[in-house]
Amino acid sequence: MMVRPPKKFTCSDKRPQFFKIYIPDQSSQRLGIPSAFNKHFGGCLPYKSVIKRPAKRSWWVEVNKVGENIYFQKGWQEFVEDNSLEFGDFLVFSYAGKSIFYVQLFGKNGCTKEVAIPTGKNKKSQALAQDIQTFEPSDSSKEVTKTILLPRGPSAIQEKQRAIKAAGNIISDYPSFEVVMKPAYVVSGLMNIPSSFRRSHMEKRRRKAMVQLSDKLWPVKLISHTNGTARFGKGWLDFVTDNNVEVGDVCSFELIETNDFVLKVSICKCRGLAPNCL
Questions:
Q1: Per-residue pLDDT tens digits for 131-143
Q2: Domain stop point among 96, 129, 162
Q3: Of 112, 119, 56, 55, whose CA–CA distance to 82 is shortest?
Q4: In what order do the strands lie in the sheet containing 57-66?
Q5: Contact status, residue 174 vs residue 254, Cβ threshold 8 Å
Q6: DSSP string, 42-68
Q7: How many whole angstroms separate alpha carbon 229 and alpha carbon 193?
Q8: pTM score
Q9: How far apart are the first and last CA of the chain?
Q10: Are residues 116 and 169 in the same domain?
Q11: Of the candidates 78, 67, 81, 56, which has an alpha carbon nearest to the alpha carbon of residue 32?
Q12: Residue 12 counted as domain residue
């Protein structure tokens, strides 16, 4: 009887791939992505992306277009340092969509390089590995709060608690919910909507919403699933980027207009000596 081997981290043959040879003079500060690979981004460059390695190692990187060229830029230097990249190392990248890249590294000897252990300088990369999760819809904003994973340490916990408390002090006469920003929510362009709010205030056929901050509106696609869950889709990442929404921030949503489904947003910033609600 043939026994199937256990599934391992791998760059799937079904995913679009490209390879690069590491040359420090050209690749230590940024790494070029082949221009022909741009077609796999569907016309939307994954500005805030994640590079993942085996053993759940992950790194934030920014993908930017400079002229006609595309690069991994901010965050790439940390990846180079943590993985001790050397001249001649061979990197195979696989794009999984949703701003996630998988990578396999091979040394000059032709063998897979050992998984790097993040240094003390960049332990946040190690913590990030636990933050990138699949989207698991929650039935309430409280459940969303419980599942958030932030950078470790007493100060980070205190910052999160202050932001949550500040958001809880917002009084609204409209239907509302609160969500603590998880890494996936600020990177992938998707954000779960609490199921309790969806059941009470969202029509099953509704496909669009508007999120409002101050006097500006952002159109956002609503994605509903047969299991009763819903999330923000296209347009949400524009809101996140334009308003510098960060991991740990608490966003309060108020349904101020039902016909066009306008959600007024208040953002309570996690960072800082005192919470700052916008």
A1: 443 343 333 333 3
A2: 129
A3: 119
A4: 17-21, 90-97, 100-106, 48-53, 57-66, 69-72, 31-33
A5: yes
A6: TTS--SEEEEEEGGGEEEEEEEEEETT
A7: 8
A8: 0.44
A9: 62
A10: no
A11: 67
A12: no
Residue 1: inside a domain: no
Strand partners of residue 97 = 100
pLDDT digits (tens, 9 = 90+) for 24-59: 888 989 999 998 898 888 778 888 889 988 766 788
Q: Is residue 3 part of a domain?
A: no
Residues 164 and 59 in one domain: no
- Integer angstrom CA distances of residue 1 from 16, 49, 216, 244: 34, 42, 63, 55
Strand partners, 85: none
Round the CA-based radius of gyration of the chain to a whole number and report it.
20
Please give, one letter per residue, the 3-state secondary structure of 199-213: HHHCCCCCCEEEEEE
The CATH number that applies at residue 255 is 2.40.330.10
Task: Please identify which residue in the block is written with the tokens 């309790």.
Answer: 196
Give the amino acid at 147: T
Q: Which residue has the tokens 């039902």?
A: 258
Residue 183's domain comprises: 141-277
